[in-house]
Write a structure and sequence with these properties.
Blueprint lengths: L7 E4 L3 H10 L5 E4 L16 E2 L6 H15 L11 E3 L2 E5 L4 H13 L5 E4 L17 E5 L3 E3 L1 H14 L3 E3 L4 E7 L2 E6 L2 E5 L1 E4 L5 H7 L8 E10 L12 E4 L5 E5 L2 E5 L4 E2 L9 H14 L7 E11 L6 E4 L6 E5 L9 H12 L6 H4 L33
Length: 394
Amino acid sequence: MSDTTADFIIIGGGIAGASVAYELSAKGKVVLLEMESAPGYHSTGRSAAVMSENYGPALWSRLVTASRGFYEQPPEGFTDVSLVTPRGALFLAKHDEVEALFNQAVELSSRGANIEIVSAEDALNFCPVVRSSEFAKALYEPDCKDIDTNALMAGYLKALRIRGGVLKVGAKVERISRTDGVWTVSTRAGEFTAPIVVNAAGGWVQEISDLAGLPYRNVVPFRRTAVVFDPPAGSDVTTWPMTFDVAETFYFKPEAGRIMVSPVDMALSEPCDAQADELEVAIAVDRIERFTTMSVQSIKHKWGGLRTFAPDHEPVIGPDPEEPSFIWLAGQGGNGVMGGGAAARLAAAFAAMEAIPQDIAALGITAENVSPGRACVVDASGAKPVVGDIEQFA
């Protein structure tokens, strides 16, 4: 089989594409197409990159649970370094959010997660800069870990090469057609054919679907902004957890001796090389100074990234309802690194027409609740949202 003919073509070389390429390369010949000059340029390289079983919507958080084993004990030879290191996570609840926090705790415990509910004052034992007067309770997740995204990507791509798979960079997709059960994907790096296409193109998934001649799906990119600043003088931030509020209006974490904060903004965007929004930068600073005792003397770095969502914020994984040989792996919404190990196994099972892996199915994940054909994703009107209007996704 030549480098242009494969069993599976995967479009998108971020963490989603690389992980499903790794899984499928054990089942057949894989060609992985990336439009940039290197994989992982967009959202993957701009991720907070932690593994928290409490963050995100229900199905994504369960995919994190199903990914934990791979990240903590990867296959022999996958990597020479640890993929994860201890971090911890702290979730802060105001008085009217305490019930939601307890409900999260019950659900996490049912999955075997290690958690602790503490008072807002006791939360200072984990993160001493929290302004405890703003909150009532906190949930501490000690097993939250930082993920080495570079090592993870390198492991996926190394295994892909060893198994005979092909990575093509600079391969922006220009045309897609299907004849006699075979897809032909024409790119700036050449033409490739396979019976199965996996759409893992991040913010560009709808463009890829359009090129394939499929109906519009509600899987849309949004901008997310992040800011980096220095912690208080003399602070040892190495043991501080990643800290969230339950309402998801901010999160912050130590990063290379500094603090990274996001206002968890969600501005509808065209697929692009996203940049930081100045208003959201100001909001990030305001939230840090309101909800912690830190002050931002100067901004050391700022950036934007795309996060792609379905209206219910849950995964979009599986065969397109119009064409089952076109597999979606999309809608990560910022969960694509931490839940990506299991999401890739799930997408690979659909692509290979296999049963959902048992450990994933045991967590209540079904073909129906992640399907690109579920009601909120399939838009019979074909009406695309207007940039600036996020009501249907909020």
